[in-house]
Design brief:
Distance between the termini: 44 Å
Strand order of the largest sheet: 8-13-12-11-9-10
Strand content: 15-25%
CATH superfamily of the largest domain: Methylglyoxal synthase-like domain
Number of helices: 18
Structural class: alpha/beta
CATH architecture of the largest domain: 3-Layer(aba) Sandwich
Number of domains: 3
Shape: elongated
CATH topology of the largest domain: Rossmann fold
Number of strands: 20
CATH class of the largest domain: Alpha Beta
Mean pLDDT: 92
Largest sheet: 6 strands, mixed
Length: 496
């Protein structure tokens, strides 16, 4: 399709000059409005004013300027439809082959702390309508909806001698609908009280990042700097872990690093739970995320304060504890409202998005099967269920070692389950834990009995795993041979 005319109306003028100059050089008639028209005219380009064709001026402070049949008709008419062509001529509607539009910076305006009315004025109506119209009619109209597309479009345009190919226009349309979807979602979130926060950067300093959501619904921030992208990922992992293991009888404390627990324990007091969690890996605890389901008192705070941490999370703090932990200005202190997180998980992949339910399934004693000759005693069973919840919240492939409701060590993110187990054993031994009588949890089945054999050689007494391998019998036989007990959950907990 030959580009003979274009409508250019952008909020951000960066880079539009090169594209407009290339179009003008090839004789493309350019329509524009307001500030964009003036900007392009300052480049000595001949620009046609939209209002000259609509016979209607911009009104209401620019709220209405392109919303007119003369504009949308030129975008939406079908070039291969005789009736459309007749009506186009009858109503003297100009044909528009290319639409170049971006959207008012709604999210940036929200993040800036602007008042409600200023935010409302940054809800784009005309722009998003132009984008949708051109994208709908991609067979006949090209749509550029983001400045990042200028360079690629120009190259495509030049290579194809002023034409655009159908598949290329379809890809532009797909990108445009993605932009309108994200834009509408941001507005929806704003009206529902969600925060839209531009973060300092993403996982690394060269990556831009933002957070859209309702943190205030989960936490009251008592102290510290703004949460970073990595902080938020770790806090999410921490909250989900404690939500799984908490109960009314004990205090739980966990220390997380890079989304994995490097320490976790359940005890009768928060201080005892913290001490038991810390000894599992005091090295990894440096710069970690601390979380508990119990009130932090002064004695516990005094120990926490001796360690460098990024974030500390608790449902409450005594006045003395809060005062102490707030003395260091950058350390983040969150009061957790103990609300569950249940919304689906969404993540981008390739050129699309993956959706799935959050993994909220936890097995209980009644869900277990006992294939081995030796059955676990009550203490082992308690530890096995605790370990199963820990492995559920650990990056796959994962192995967890537990004793007396205390994480001894974990093997995380390995390509081999044997490697994960060997990693866990090495860590446990490095911190002088005696593995005799400990239990082992695996996030997926054992395809071979090798992990059971390695565990048995360290006097680990019991194993919990999903089961489901065609060679389950070999692992069960190895447990019987080594005097170990095995239980199966029937539930796999991969976490990639």
């Amino acid at each position: 399709m030959k580009i003979k005319s274009a409508l250019i109306s952008v909020f951000n003028k960066e880079g539009i000059d090169k594209l407009a100059l290339e179009l003008a050089k090839n004789g493309v008639k350019i329509y524009s409005t307001g500030g964009t028209k003036k900007y392009l005219e300052d480049l000595d380009l001949k620009i046609e004013a939209v209002e000259d064709y609509t016979n209607y001026p911009e009104v209401f402070g620019g709220r209405v300027k392109t919303l007119h049949p003369a504009i949308f008709g030129g975008i939406l008419y079908r070039r291969d439809n005789d009736s459309d062509l007749k009506e186009l001529d009858q109503h003297n509607i100009p044909s528009i082959d290319l639409v170049v539009v971006d959207l008012y910076p709604f999210e940036d305006t929200v993040a800036s702390g602007a008042d409600h009315q200023a935010i409302i004025e940054k809800i784009d109506i005309g722009g998003i309508s132009l984008i949708r119209a051109a994208a709908k009619n991609y067979k006949h109209t090209a749509i550029i909806s983001n400045k990042s597309q200028y360079s690629d479009f120009t190259e495509h345009y030049v290579v194809n001698n002023g034409n655009t190919l159908s598949d290329y226009r379809k890809n532009l349309a797909s990108a445009a609908f993605g932009i309108t979807m994200d834009y509408d979602t941001a507005i929806h979130n704003y009206f529902n009280g969600a925060q839209n926060v531009v973060l300092r950067y993403g996982e690394n300093p060269h990556q831009k990042a933002s957070f859209v959501g309702d943190l205030d619904g989960l936490f009251q921030k008592l102290n510290g700097k703004e949460l970073s992208y990595n902080n938020l990922l770790d806090v999410d992992a921490a909250v989900n872990l404690i939500a799984d293991i908490k109960d009314k009888e004990t205090c739980s404390f966990a220390i997380l690093k890079h989304n994995n627990a490097c320490g976790c324990a359940k005890r009768q007091s928060v201080l005892e739970a913290f001490d038991a969690a810390l000894v599992a890996d005091p090295v990894s605890a440096f710069g970690g995320i601390f979380i508990t389901d119990s009130e932090i008192d002064l004695e516990t705070a005094q120990k926490i304060d001796k360690i460098f941490y990024e974030v500390c999370i608790a449902p409450s703090y005594t006045d003395e504890a809060q005062e102490l932990l707030s003395k260091k200005a950058k350390r983040i202190l969150l009061k957790w409202r103990m609300q569950d997180i249940s919304q689906p998980i969404k993540r981008s992949a390739l050129n699309g998005t993956l959706y799935q339910d959050r993994d909220i399934l936890n097995v209980s004693e009644s869900d277990l099967t006992y294939p081995s000759e030796i059955k676990p005693d009550s203490n082992q069973l308690r530890d096995l269920l605790f370990a199963d919840k820990l492995v559920k919240n650990t990056k796959s492939n994962a192995i967890i070692l537990v004793k007396d409701e205390q994480l001894l060590a974990s093997g995380t993110g390995q390509t081999s389950r044997v490697d994960a187990l060997n990693q866990a054993i090495a860590k446990a031994e490095a911190f002088n834990f005696n593995l005799k009588g400990a239990v082992m949890a695996s996030d997926a089945f054992f395809p071979f009995p090798d992990c059971v054999e390695i565990a048995g050689s360290k006097a680990i007494s019991a194993v919990i795993q999903p089961g489901g391998s065609i060679k389950d019998g070999l692992s069960v036989f190895k447990c019987d041979e080594l005097g170990m007990s095995m239980v199966m959950t029937g539930v796999r907990h991969f976490k990639h």
